[in-house]
UniProtKB/TrEMBL annotation:
The keyword Ribosomal protein does not apply. InterPro entries: AAA+_ATPase (IPR003593), ABC_transporter-like_ATP-bd (IPR003439), ABC_transporter-like_CS (IPR017871), ABC_transporter_ATP-bind (IPR050166), P-loop_NTPase (IPR027417). Belongs to the ABC transporter superfamily. It comes from the Bacteria. This is Putative hydroxymethylpyrimidine transport system ATP-binding protein. GO terms for molecular function: ATP binding; ATP hydrolysis activity.
Length: 250
C-alpha cells in the first residue's frame, strides 16, 4: 500500500468568480485530513479535482502526490455527497458495481461482510428505494470501502446517520482505512475533532490549519481534551465562517 501525502496549491475559481484565494496545503500520508468550510466555498470541488473528476471550478495551481506518481483513478475511491446508487441494483450489487464495471469478478463474500459491518446485514438484496437515506449512505460507504484504494475521498459520508450509528460507522471506517490517505469533508466540528489527524478551515480568503488534540483517532468524544477542542473549533468556525465576535473561554 502506497498512500501518499497530497499537496494542493493555487487558487480556486469558476470563471471570473474566485472561490478560494491562494493556498498551499499538504494533506499528510496515511492520515485523516478533514476539510471544513461554509456551504459553497469549494470543498466538493477540491475533492473532485483531487479525484481527477470533471468540476465546474478551476484550480489555477497544482495537485501532486508526494511519491511523484500521478493520482490516477486506480489509486482513488471517492464517496460523493449523494449516494449515487444504481436504482435497479441490490445493495450487494451496488457495493461491487465498480468491480463489475471493470469486468472483474465481484467478491460477494467480502461485500456481504462489509454490508454487515456497516449494519446492513439481511438487507443485501434490497434495492435503494427499499432503504432509508441512512441505509443508502451506508451502502455507498461499503462500496467505497470495498474498492480498497490508497486515497479515499469522503464527501459528508456520515451526514444521514443517527448519532450512535454514526459513531460506530466512523470507528469502523477509521479501522478499515488505516494506512490510507483519507480526505473527509464535514460540516460537523464534533466529527472533525473525533476523526482528524489534520484539519483545515476553508474560507474565500484561503485555507488555514486548525489545532487538534495530540490523542489518536477516533478520539473519545467525552474526553476533556476532545470537548475542549470541539468548543474551540466551533468558536473558530463562527468567527471565520460567520464573522461573529470570538467568545471568551471557548
Ligand atoms: N455546475 C456549476 N456551474 C457553476 N458553478 C458551480 C457549479 N457547481 C458548483 N458551482 C459553484 O462552485 C462553488 C463551489 O461548489 P462546491 O460544491 O465545491 O462547494 P462546497 O463547499 O462543497 O459546498 P457544500 O458544503 O454546500 O456542499 C459554489 O459556489 C457553487 O455555486
Amino acid at each position: 500500500m502506497s498512500a501518499p501525502a497530497i499537496r494542493i496549491s493555487g487558487r480556486l475559481h469558476t470563471g471570473p468568480k474566485q472561490h478560494i484565494a491562494d493556498f498551499d496545503i499538504t494533506l499528510p500520508s496515511r492520515c485523516w485530513s478533514v476539510l471544513l468550510g461554509p456551504s459553497g466555498v469549494g470543498k466538493t470541488s477540491l475533492l473532485r479535482l483531487i479525484a481527477g473528476l470533471p468540476c465546474a471550478a478551476n484550480l489555477v495551481g497544482k495537485i501532486t502526490a508526494a511519491d511523484g506518481a500521478p493520482i490516477a483513478s486506480h489509486r482513488v475511491a471517492m464517496m460523493a455527497q449523494d449516494d449515487q446508487l444504481l436504482p435497479w441494483a441490490s445493495a450487494l450489487d451496488n457495493t461491487t458495481i465498480c468491480t463489475r464495471l471493470r469486468g472483474e469478478n465481484a467478491q460477494k463474500e467480502r461485500a456481504t461482510t462489509l454490508l454487515a459491518q456497516v449494519g446492513l446485514s439481511g438487507l443485501e438484496h434490497r434495492k435503494p428505494a427499499q432503504l432509508s437515506a441512512g441505509q443508502r449512505q451506508r451502502v455507498a460507504l461499503a462500496r467505497t470501502l470495498y474498492e480498497d484504494r490508497d486515497i479515499i475521498l469522503l464527501d459528508e459520508p456520515f451526514s444521514a446517520l443517527d448519532v450512535t450509528t454514526r459513531q460506530s460507522v466512523q470507528d469502523l471506517a477509521v479501522r478499515l482505512l488505516a494506512r490510507r490517505t483519507v480526505v473527509l469533508i464535514s460540516h460537523d466540528p464534533a466529527e472533525a475533532i473525533r476523526l482528524a489527524d489534520a484539519a483545515w478551515l476553508i474560507t474565500p480568503a484561503g485555507i488555514t490549519s486548525c489545532a487538534l488534540p495530540s490523542t489518536t483517532i477516533p478520539r473519545n468524544a467525552a474526553a476533556k481534551e476532545t470537548l475542549g477542542a470541539h468548543a474551540a473549533l466551533l468558536n473558530h468556525m463562527r468567527v471565520l465562517f460567520a464573522g461573529e465576535t470570538p467568545r471568551c473561554g471557548a
